[in-house]
Recover the amino acids of this structure.
């Protein structure tokens, strides 16, 4: 007889509750769990991919070693011995910084990796730490750290109670929220409109979310900071400030006022391409709303002024009194709270990258520097790379450069379930058990969810015989390394399970819930709506908000210097599909079926100007490379802007992802530029890249 298993989907930030029906080790059905307090029965098509990942014949389950160009299975013991020996060898030959680490996006969604990878990687004492955080979210953390004292103190739009949701560069109907976990966003958006509220989307593309919104405003990519600064200036100069009790514990209004007074609505209109009357109306709508939540996401983060833009989004929420207000934006209170336990400290510029001298932030360097740090000879050069759950060849700007640079490494290890475009360069691959074979508790996204809840999911199926969990890999490898270095294993060689670690973390929480209660609640525990909690929740020692951090004020000079400047050709922006999850779920048959999604969107006027017909193949060129892709003519696009999805380009030799290879597509990151970066936060500027279009004589490929 079939059995039912409840778990949290850990594929994206939304944390949807799933109800999985299974029989004899086979998944029969995946549905949304109606009793999950956060997702209320919602799920998206990607959840079905969990079955495909579990059954995927291409998924690796044993360590592989490259011997004379051929992959051979080896034992875990041999693999650990070799990797630990190489770490020691590189350290002795070149120093600790010669070993670099890259952690990809799924790292943060995997409980075992979250709990055990950092202690291991930190033990390497390298300054060359890179993660997917510097591809699309450092600006959020940077603004939060400077303003509120902790990178994870990100205010979350309270859309279940708001009257106005203003979205800059985000597409929550497709992402299900990002830096804001919001499953079932479609119903929540509808509820805003049904109670007389309004949704406004500001984006260079009329996205799926924009189509359902009350208003959509086209804006030139990378120009959000101008619009935000102009609205902030308008609020202050027109005497429309209404920040109420926030004034009692907020510093910096005078400095802010002086710094943005040159950004008029007229000036912002020239820079953004948004008409003056539209900006004025937007400013008035924000000022007049009883409860408003201003939110920005990927389009705002992945640009040259991401840090400034996210700071100004926070500024607007504060100036209008919407920070820490029901129906505005609020901080979360997770049961396992990383914020409350950490002490205020400097997290910026404690070291710099070797080649371009970019400052570190939260312990990592911008991933846009990774290729040059491998290529450039000299002391501190990267000689060995360890990747965990990542495919940076497809996911970082100028991925083609990294693809070549990886060949220059002396040694590479990938902790990954697939032989992908990056791990194919490795000398050893260590594949962990994954998905429904693992237990889960979300350690990060409860900090960013629109409702407080707590949920533990046990593993559904046993891992394959002889396989290892990620938490076993990091602890066992750490023990072998420690034994080789000091003669002793860590904690006497004891391996801790995630459950043992979690029960300790849950010991003191504001809700007084026990780990046993969480374990016994298959649908999760509802811990209630987000609530106002300032100034107590602030992490700055003085418990005050800094409205005008010096680093951000100074960066306004860079914004000012960028005025009236543009490149040649079209600006290229990214695009996401509900069935895509970056690059790593492209081997799911369920998710890959349907028409080709790797297409280039172009406005009808631009297509006419270029003489392009719908579905025609076009060559797209940038400073760094060239791809051939079919165009799709669409009035979704702002004139002068093109959009292309990321995560494609599975056309490299030596990868083992059969389904993905059938729909290989091309990589947008063969066009994006690693030299274009938000110089303040170190975030890659995917959306500030100029490309040119060239006719191609080939037939359409779909
Ligand atoms: S939105 Fe989809 S991928 Fe994300 S958690 Fe929910 S079901 Fe999983």
């Amino acid at each position: 007889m079939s059995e039912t298993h409840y778990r949290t989907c850990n594929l994206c930030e939304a944390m949807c509750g799933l109800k999985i029906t299974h029989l004899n080790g086979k998944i029969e059905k995946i549905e949304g769990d109606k009793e999950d307090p956060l997702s209320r029965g919602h799920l998206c098509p990607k959840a079905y991919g969990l079955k495909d990942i579990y059954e995927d014949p291409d998924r690796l389950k044993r360590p592989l070693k490259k011997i004379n160009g051929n992959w051979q299975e080896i034992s875990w013991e041999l693999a650990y011995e070799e990797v630990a020996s190489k770490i020691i060898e590189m350290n002795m030959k070149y120093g600790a910084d010669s070993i670099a680490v890259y952690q990809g996006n799924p790292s943060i969604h995997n409980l075992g990796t979250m709990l055990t990878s950092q202690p291991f990687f930190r033990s390497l004492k390298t300054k060359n730490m890179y993660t997917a955080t510097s591809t699309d979210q450092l600006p959020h953390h940077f603004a939060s750290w400077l303003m509120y004292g902790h990178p994870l103190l990100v205010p979350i739009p309270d859309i279940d109670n708001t009257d106005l949701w203003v979205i800059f560069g985000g597409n929550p109907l497709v992402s299900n929220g990002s830096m804001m976990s919001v499953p079932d966003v479609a119903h929540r958006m509808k509820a805003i409109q049904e109670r007389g509220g309004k949704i406004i989307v500001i984006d260079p593309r009329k996205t799926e979310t924009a189509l359902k919104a009350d208003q959509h405003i086209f804006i030139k990519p990378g120009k959000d900071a101008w619009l935000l600064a102009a609205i902030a200036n308008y609020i202050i100069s027109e005497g429309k400030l209404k920040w109420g009790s926030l004034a009692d514990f907020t510093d910096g209004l005078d400095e802010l006022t002086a710094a943005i007074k040159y950004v008029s609505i007229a000036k912002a209109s020239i820079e953004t391409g948004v008409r003056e009357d539209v900006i004025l109306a937007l400013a008035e709508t924000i000022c007049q709303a009883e409860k408003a939540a201003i939110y920005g996401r990927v389009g705002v983060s992945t640009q040259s002024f991401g840090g400034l833009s996210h700071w100004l989004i926070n500024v607007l929420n504060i100036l209008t009194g919407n920070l820490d207000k029901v129906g505005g934006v609020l901080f979360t209170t997770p049961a396992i709270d990383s914020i409350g336990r950490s002490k205020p400290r400097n997290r910026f510029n404690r070291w710099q990258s070797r080649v371009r001298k970019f400052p570190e932030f939260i312990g990592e360097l911008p991933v846009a520097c990774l290729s040059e740090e491998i290529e450039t000879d000299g002391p501190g050069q990267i000689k060995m790379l360890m990747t965990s759950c990542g495919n940076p060849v497809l996911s970082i700007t100028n991925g083609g450069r990294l693809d070549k640079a990886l060949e220059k490494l002396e040694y590479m290890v990938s902790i990954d379930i697939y032989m992908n475009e990056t791990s194919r360069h490795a000398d050893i691959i260590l594949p962990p058990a994954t998905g429904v074979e693992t237990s889960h508790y979300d350690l990060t996204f409860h900090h960013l969810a629109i409702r407080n809840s707590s949920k533990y999911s046990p593993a559904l199926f046993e891992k394959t015989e002889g396989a290892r969990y990620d938490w076993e890999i990091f602890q066992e490898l750490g023990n072998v390394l420690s034994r080789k270095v000091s003669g002793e294993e860590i904690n006497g060689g004891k391996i801790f399970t995630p459950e043992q670690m979690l029960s300790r973390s849950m010991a003191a929480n504001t809700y007084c819930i026990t780990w046993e209660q969480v374990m016994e609640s298959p649908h999760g525990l509802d811990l209630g709506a987000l609530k106002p909690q300032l100034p107590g929740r602030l992490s700055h020692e003085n418990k005050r908000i800094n409205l005008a951090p010096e680093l951000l004020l100074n960066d306004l000079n860079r914004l000012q210097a960028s005025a009236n400047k543009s490149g040649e050709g079209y600006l290229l922006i990214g695009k996401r599909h509900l069935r895509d999850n970056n690059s790593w779920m492209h081997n799911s048959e369920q998710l890959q079926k349907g028409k080709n999604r790797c297409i280039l969107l172009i406005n009808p006027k631009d297509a006419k100007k270029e003489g392009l017909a719908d579905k025609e193949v076009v060559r797209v060129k940038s400073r760094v490379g060239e791809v051939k892709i079919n165009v799709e003519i669409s009035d979704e696009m702002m004139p002068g802007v093109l959009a292309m999805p990321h995560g494609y380009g599975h056309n490299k030799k030596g990868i083992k992802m059969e389904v993905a290879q059938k729909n290989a597509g091309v990589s947008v990151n063969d066009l994006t530029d690693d030299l274009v970066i938000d110089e303040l936060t170190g975030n890659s500027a995917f959306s500030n890249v100029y490309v040119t279009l060239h006719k191609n004589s080939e037939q359409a490929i779909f």
